[in-house]
């Protein structure tokens, strides 16, 4: 079996044990398969595990959460059904602390605070609309944000989502602060990035291991892309 052309330890693979596989996902890669038929992260992970452990059949890969295709950063995959079940419960109960880094074209005002919106997803257009007050079937969505500083001609914002709604950070920064994420033309930025990613990175996850109960913190290095280069100073 030829080694698959994916992932190296300490670069894409941030952690692995008997129950978890933690990946620093590159922008542009789906986490789970969709109608496009493009190979997702979950399929690449199965290929990696089959190769590494010389499995004759399929390897178990459970998807407990997702980040958007144009977003980079941490994704935790489950290698056992026990881990998947417990991760699903932890994400549902907001017991996993998530930290994202985002680049915006201007500094938000205020420079730190809390945002609450009710989000309504349009599945046809694959967009989400944010309302400042309770709205129909909208889901209450909360996040905290803080400006870390200027990164070149952009501003680096740390975001801690408390809930986990589709496109939550993207639409809340754009609607609530008037600062769409760099490259995110879907939510108001004027021009795309050359690689069609957006400057949003799932930087850190803090959680209790679903099986061993050990306290764990995973940190994903920023992509080696020009638009992130100035943000490296904030490590």
Automatic annotation (TrEMBL):
Give the similarity note: Belongs to the pseudouridine synthase RluA family.
Q: Pseudouridine synthase RsuA/RluA-like domain location, by residue?
A: 19-174
Task: List the keywords (alphabetical).
Answer: Isomerase
Q: Which CDD domains match?
A: PseudoU_synth_RluA_like
Identify the stretch annotated as signal peptide in this record: none
Protein name listed in UniProt: RluA family pseudouridine synthase
Q: Which PANTHER family match?
A: MITOCHONDRIAL RNA PSEUDOURIDINE SYNTHASE (PTHR21600), PSEUDOURIDYLATE SYNTHASE RPUSD4, MITOCHONDRIAL (PTHR21600:SF83)
Q: Among the record's GO biological process terms, what is one?
A: RNA processing
**Superkingdom assignment:** Bacteria
Question: What molecular functions are annotated in GO for this chain?
Answer: catalytic activity, acting on RNA; pseudouridine synthase activity; RNA binding
Instruction: Name its species.
Output: Hymenobacter sediminicola
């Amino acid at each position: 079996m030829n080694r698959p052309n994916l992932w190296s330890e300490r670069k894409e693979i941030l952690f692995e044990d008997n129950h978890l596989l933690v990946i620093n996902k590159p922008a542009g890669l789906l986490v789970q398969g969709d109608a496009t038929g493009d190979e997702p992260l979950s399929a690449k992970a199965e290929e990696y595990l089959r190769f590494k452990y010389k499995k004759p059949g399929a390897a178990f890969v459970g998807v407990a959460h997702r980040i958007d295709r144009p977003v980079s950063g941490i994704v935790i995959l489950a290698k056992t059904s026990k881990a998947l079940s417990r991760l699903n419960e932890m994400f549902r109960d907001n017991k996993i602390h998530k930290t994202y880094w985002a680049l915006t074209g201007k500094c938000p005002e205020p420079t730190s605070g809390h945002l609450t919106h009710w989000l309504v997803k349009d599945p046809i257009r694959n967009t989400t609309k944010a309302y400042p007050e309770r709205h129909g079937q909208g889901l209450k969505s909360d996040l905290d944000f803080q400006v870390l500083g200027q990164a070149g001609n952009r501003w680096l914002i740390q975001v801690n989502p408390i809930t986990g709604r589709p496109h939550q950070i993207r639409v809340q920064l754009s609607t609530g602060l008037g600062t769409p994420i760099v490259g995110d033309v879907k939510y108001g930025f004027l021009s795309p990035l050359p690689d069609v990613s957006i400057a949003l990175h799932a930087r850190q996850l803090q959680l209790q291991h679903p099986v061993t109960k050990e306290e764990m913190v995973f940190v994903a290095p920023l992509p080696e892309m020009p638009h992130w280069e100035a943000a490296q100073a904030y490590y």
